[in-house]
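Message: Just now I want nothing more than another pair of eyes on a protein record. I am handing you a single protein, as its sequence and its fold in token form. As I understand it, each token names a local backbone shape. Take your time, and here it is.
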Amino acid sequence: MNLIGTWLTDRMDLQLHVYQLKILIRIVKKKYRDFRLQGVLDSTLNSKMYETVRNRLTLEEATASVREGGMQGISMKDSDEEDNDN
């Protein structure tokens, strides 16, 4: 998560391409789910860096939805239903 956070920080003044955004959302959500299933405590998972990454991706998602007209079902929104179109 620190690597993704650093990468996003280095590109703070640039908007992400829709493809970059979709991939990063999938990576972050999968990482969070997988570690949670392994029993990692929420206090560890919800670190400052995770919150920073999550906020940035949520902001980028909103921008892309307005700019591109939608994200085709990929979202940072928490849900039990995950897209399995890998």
In short: Confidence is low (pLDDT under 50) at residues 79-86. Helices lie at 2-10, 18-37, 42-45, 48-68. The chain is about 65% helix and 0% strand.
